[in-house]
Structures are given as structure tokens and as C-alpha cells.
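B., you asked whether I could sanity-check this one before it goes into the benchmark set. Here's the sequence:
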Amino acid sequence: MRKVVVIGFMGSGKTTVGKAVAEALGWQFCDLDEAIVTRSQQSISALFAQDEATFRAIEHEVMVDLLAIKTSEMVIATGGGTPCYADMMTILLEQSTVIYLDCDETTLAQRLKTATVERPMLQQGDWHELLNKRAAIYRCAHHVVNNNDTVADAVNKITAIINNKK
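And here's what the prediction gave me:
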């Protein structure tokens, strides 16, 4: 059983890169937000609109359940805030290999401007401030991978990290 958890700010490419890494390794892929929607039968935006604390509790429960799956090798893409609440970063570091997809603000701004995905945290103010608050937590990851370039570049870096751990 091996788990790789991809963390980073919204727009950093967690889902896109995570899927590609899983495919390259022949592993399962799970997007945490999709798993939350499946379990709660509500959209992420709807959950946030109700109460962020409830969303974070469901997020925590689903993430712990995914990490507990014993039968598979899996890449999990988290939400941007996942490692920043409760004791989640500690749990991730203890139970998986954590990869932080780091992007500069110019790259993030371009991606967020063209994104088609709803991002509830963007509705709450300046994303630069939110990034600055979360960056110190993200940097606690086992590995930091720059994702300003192509998906293929990030995938190559991450698969090299994982293959060196075998």
C-alpha cells in the first residue's frame, strides 16, 4: 500500500498532474473533492455555502478513509485547503508521500482567470493573502515540485521521486 498525496493552492494543477502521475505509475487516482461530493451528495460550493466547518469535517473524514484503504497504490489530489485544517498535514505526512505543487503567482493568476471550476474560497477575498497563509504549511510536504511549466514536466519529476522510493 502506497499513497501519494498532491497538495497545493487552487490552480496549481493537483487534479491534472495527479491523474497523469497515477496513469504513468499504473496506480488508482482519486480527487478528494469528487469523493466528498459523492459521499455528501452535494457540490463543494453548496457545502461551503452551508458551513465551512461542516465541509472541513467531511473533507477530513473522507481523506482519512482514503488513506486507510489497504489494497491499492493511489494518487490523491486534495483541495487547496485540505492540509491547512485540523491535524490533516500531520496525518498526510505520516501516512503518505506528500508532494507540493508549487507555482508562482503569475502562473496561478493566469490559471485562476481561465478556470472553469467553481472555487468557493475565491469568493472570500484576496487569493494572494490566502496563498501566503497556506504556503508555509504546503512547504512542509516531503517534496516540492515546481509546476509552472508543462504537466509532463511535473509528472516526470514526481514519478522520478516515487520510483526512487521503491
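One thing to flag: The helical segments are 14-25, 32-40, 44-50, 52-68, 88-95, 105-114, 127-138, 151-164. Otherwise nothing jumped out at me.
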